[in-house]
Amino acid sequence: MTFTDELKEMTQDTWDRSLNHPFVRGVTDGSLPLEKFKFYILQDIYYLKHYGKVHAFAAAHADDFDVTADLAQKASETAQSELTVHQEHAEILDIKKEEIDNLDPAPTAYAYTSHLYRAALSGSLGEIVAAILPCYWLYADIGLRYQDAEPEPDIYKNWIATYASDWFQESTQDMIQLMNDIASQASEVEKDKFRQQFKIAKEYELGFWEMAYTFEDWISNK
Question: Which positions are tagged coiled coil (predicted)?
Answer without folding.
Answer: none
